[in-house]
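Hi all, long-time lurker, first post. I run a small reading group and we've been trying to get comfortable going from sequence to structure in the token notation. Rather than ask abstract questions, I figured I'd post a concrete chain and ask someone more experienced to write out its structure so we can walk through it together at our next meeting. Sequence below, copied exactly:
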Amino acid sequence: MIQAPSKVDEKRFYAKILRKLGAVGSTAPSADALEHSVETNLRRSGTRILLIDEFQHFTAGSTNRHVENLQAIKCLTNELSLPIVGAGLPGARHSLHFDPQLENRFIQVSLPLLKSSPEFAILVMKFVATLPLRMEMPVAERIPVCKRLAVLCEGKIGEMHRLLREMAKIAIRSGDDLITFDRLKAVENLSPLLRMTRVKNV
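-- Answer (accepted) --
Happy to help. Here is the structure in token form:
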């Protein structure tokens, strides 16, 4: 998986892939040389799928640059028969309108906002399991933490993950390595929901 550069052009896009693959190119390669290097290294690494996060960044810049960026993606799919998954904000799907041929190669799927549910609780626990904590979240804390977290993150998985990471930092510094409801209350002020509430109340 790579994250699309905030300012996308062919060379930045190819360079990002090469860095992810651990490949080193020349100091000032041309776009053609980078394209060849990317194709070679993707084949050599046995990459079976390329996931591009922040796909909406491909819409940045002039129309000509936008078309060039999409052409770079199309070349990779043509040369390597490589499945590509683009993930991002709603603008990501609009970025494909400039190239109907490429647009037809993507199946567009909209993910609903997260809400408090058993499925949400399972997702939270899976995220917690990836954190560098020695202790599991106490069973009695799971329901209240998940319910409050669902409200604070406003259905956004990135915000959920960020709040969990902040709780983990406090838990590690405290030495008990526990995620609890009190710990969530300590990081609530970092949530976009409460930030917006404070602004409205000013």
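A couple of things your group might point at:
Confidence is low (pLDDT under 50) at residues 198-202.
The chain is about 55% helix and 5% strand.
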